[in-house]
Amino acid sequence: MLFQQVINGLTLGSVYAIIALGYTMVYGILELINFAHGEIYMLGAYLGIIFLGIFTTMGLTAYSLPLAVFLTVVLAIFFCSAYGFTMEKVAYKPLRNAPRLSPLISAIGVSIFLQNYVMITQGATDRVFPYRFGEKHLHFMNAEVTWLQGSIIAVSAILMISLHMFQKTRMGKAMRATAQDKTMAALVGINVDSIISLTFVIGAGLAAVAGVMVASYYGLVNHFIGYVAGIKAFTAAVLGGIGSIPGAMLGGIILGLIESTGAAYISSEYKDAYAFVILIIILLIKPSGILGRHTEEKV
Amino acid sequence: MVHILEARDVSKHFGGIGALEDVSFKIRKGAIISIIGPNGAGKTTLFNCLTGIARPDRGAIYFMENEISKLPAHRVTELGIARTFQNIRLFPEMTVIENVMVAQHLRVRYGLLSAIAHNRTFRKKEKDIIEKAFEYVGFVGLENFARTPACNLSYGSQRRLEIARALATEPGLLLLDEPTAGMNAIETMEVMDLIAQIRELGKTIVLIEHDMKLVMGISEWIIVLDHGVKIAEGTAEEVRNDPLVIDAYLGKEAVQ
Predict the structure, then answer these.
(1) Any idea which architecture A2-285 has in CATH?
(2) ipTM, 2 dp
């Protein structure tokens, strides 16, 4: 029973973690809570449904399911990255030197816009994921792990490892340098604008994968899912220490585990409330999060 | 090309206050030049204009025949101007070697695809970057601290690291903003030796300094600013005897 909840929690948590990465990366560079990030995840879920639907109609799904899923994910990443890129250029870049509240309000505006945009174009009712992944599962220490759960955990792990390796490359170092001091980064020859764009593109790409995975896991999607998922991933980012990439990963996993065990042992009625209780507790006790650096005012 | 840098009538105002007023000068290639002047004379503002951090309101700056006053900072760095700051600005959470590596990436490029694939180009270039970074770190004598986070270095070492990082962008012109500020006599001597060595590499160096004795000893040309206006320039001897300079900067002490 407990181990089953751990598996469920890991599945959920790894999704939270990869959404949380988008929040934390943007915060690390711009000190902006990108409230529209959950909406990118929602777009990813819709794009997954749309593209897999197209591939099913074309007969590709029947021909090769892995190929159809792979192409769906690639296309969802592409389009979500384009949304993320455009969002930064339109809603945040013009406000780069404005007071900190302005881009925050702009983010909420983008969030409301995207929700309504999807509602108008895709309809206000739930959409169904066009393929049901079977209930085939592995038995593992008295727990049942479906192939889908295993895939979600594996894909998330691969994404997190890739991001970790990316941090050590030329562009990853440029990104860390930009997060620490934008002026100085420009003075060692880093194009700060393109690094900021890259951050949004990577964050949106990760959210796209999360969106497709959740759509396939729950099977149902509506235009509100970005809001709750966004708030939870944000909680995960704060729990781990906002601005810290390992923190977002850790925070996501912990949050997922708390939710699934809480739902099993306390009450599933309050499933969504656990995240908010945790958010309040962290903000009261350790606002810098588990792995967050102590923020000092820059002189 | 005798002159590496030329400023023509550069002016910069901050809300009605003139930080720089029609400042013009030329800098000869390979020279060590000092910019001196009392606090608030506009020295750091001038550096900001030269590196693309601040945009002059009027005037033009030419670096190796390129107009640079309208370029963003990263383009100016790419053309070959690097600088350090009076209050040190390292990437505090990166190690010493990473601080230098990040500055080198400008000169060593590889595609995102080869980074993802970790192919031979990627590994070769990353290896080149690390080797070169160790050269720069060794040049300023920090080879034993390569893996130390920059924020854990001593004050003097942080200054040296800042110089190493500036060198790693492979500049033709190096701007040093008070490189000996807050240092004791021995550390100051060491930094001066380092500056002399950098010059041997064929770099042109512009210093902002407060230590008059130090400036007089090392620089072959001195530019004096006061309240944003260039009041004199010349050799150490000429500047020392200029009545305007004595009045504005050196004060009565120097006359005695």
Answers:
(1) Orthogonal Bundle (1.10)
(2) 0.87
